[in-house]
Design brief:
14 helices, Rossmann fold, binds nicotinamide-adenine-dinucleotide, 7-stranded mixed beta sheet
Length: 420
Amino acid sequence: MATEVVCPTNVLESALHQLDEVAALVNLDPAVHLKLSKPKRAVAVSIPTHMDDGSTEVFVGFRVQHNMDRGPCKGGIRYHPCVTMDEVTALAMWMTWKCAVVDIPYGGAKGGVICDPAQMSERELQNLTRRFVYELVEVIGPDRDIPAPDVNTNERTMGWLMDTYSMQYGYSIPAVVTGKPVCIGGSLGRAQATGRGIVYVTREALKTLDMPIEGATVAVQGFGKVGGAFAELIAPLGAKVQAVSDVSGGVFCGDGLDIFALQRHVAETGYVRGFPGGEEIANEDLLALDCDVLVPAALENVFTAENAESVRAKLIVEGANGPTTPEAHDIFVDRGIFVVPDILANAGGVTVSYFEWCQGIQKLFWSEEEVNRRLERVMVGAYHQVYERSLSLGTDMRNAAMAVAVERVAEAITARGIHP
Ligand code: NAD
């Protein structure tokens, strides 16, 4: 069912290019620039795993901690055939900026394992996860580095992670991971938090552009934890979600897809393709759809020099990390397409992860309304700080978000100094 996987390349180059751009824009201290261009720690491990047929497979996994100056590292774990050390390093760097842009006391990290979960049983995935965590016991921890879900990992994976880590110490340590099931210390509202945060910033960006949300036409690439929640939450606000795609292909309905029926179809078949409430649409056509809002929520390098000219959306809100190459970014700026960058747009996930960590440490849990209310305050506040910065610097939203983030991290580095 799945389409051929084309792995994103040069993702780290894109991340470093963004850093260089903002360093020039804000006159960043060269020593701080140099420090931020390298991860603090990068670990590669082999993961021997018992497979169902009795064989042993050895997978390769990575954990990269980019920066810890503002607090412990934070970042998801991805299971995907395209995972590389460079990709994980770029994602860790983006996590540093993301935590800083919403001003939560974390640095950035990311993890990944080169594997294809679609080809693995639940037991094999559990074996892989447990051994991966075991290999990282010295590196992660509630005050060191706190993983979370990312592409192809979920609550269940985080439950295994928490259990494996806790087993090494002999008592439950829920704050080592976020995005875990609510019954073992997860936060209400975490599952939809990234999508909900994207809804809040989409709403604010539409106000900036003087476009009503009621009747706004929307296309979403990727219908997983992020894209699925976003589509589900934006539709009741009156937006028309016309097209949605996943790795299997896409569906389109001019009058707006019935997102709840689509969710049921995906729950039954595993994929978007074949949904009877819409016609098929190719991924490239979805990206070029004449719509108001386009939300990439799959992988990196979706918008490139090759296809950026064909994008017709007025507003792009980056649900995925790194969906826009630097060349595509320049094209969007030239064409006046308003882009809410990933480090701001999808920061709702890490924000509620932070809430989950705080609740876990205090052993005091909040209602879902309380979580959502606090999330809205953080996302809306961050959106307007970045927008104001874009006006004062005379730059686009990506550079402005980077400026806000990098200056906060630089301030922490300067306050701490370099050891020894
Ligand atoms: P997921 O595994 O739940 O969903 C990924 C979705 O993308 C799936 O629907 C998959 O079929 C689809 N997809 C994969 N390749 C595709 C392709 N070539 N074309 C179209 N669709 C494709 O992952 P997720 O957690 O939703 O993450 C999606 C993106 O959001 C990633 O970039 C991730 O780093 C980012 N992100 C996730 C979170 C989070 O809380 N999960 C937070 C911030 C950012």
